[in-house]
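Person: I have long wanted to understand how a fold can be written as tokens. Underneath my words sits a plain record pairing an amino acid chain with its backbone structure tokens. Those tokens are not coordinates but codes from a learned vocabulary of shapes. I should like you to check that the lines agree and flag anything odd. The protein I mean follows directly.
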Amino acid sequence: LPAGSTSNYFRTREALLEVAARRHLEHDMPPAELLEALTNDKTPLSREELRALILAALEPILAEATRGRLAARYELTLESARRAELHAVMDELRRTVAELTAIALRRSGCKEPELHARHLGVGLDGISVDQVGATTPTLDRPAIEQLIDRFLDTC
């Protein structure tokens, strides 16, 4: 892009970073029909269904083809530690994901869905950090599944 092109759309760096953060959430959210089913359907989820949902949500985030996007998300996270406005946006996005996770956990019979949603979010962030650098042996799919299973054993 020619110099100044970005400023035609985003007057400030904060505006650009906010749009980038919201775009990441759009990429990471499940398809609309799955979101609707998750939030409107009250049918209990089995452990296997919950496990499949978690792994399906994690798969596109960890795909090697989108590793650059994952790195960009962490750049936004680091930048939000220095910019209060961006921090507020990132916090809002994290709460949205935690609320959706709590719904799924509640439907699976979890006794503390809100707390466990935060636990799961932190665990999945750790898995993501492990994958983003890919400079050492990272967890493979079976190891990630074991980690998810261990989490679900406590839920």
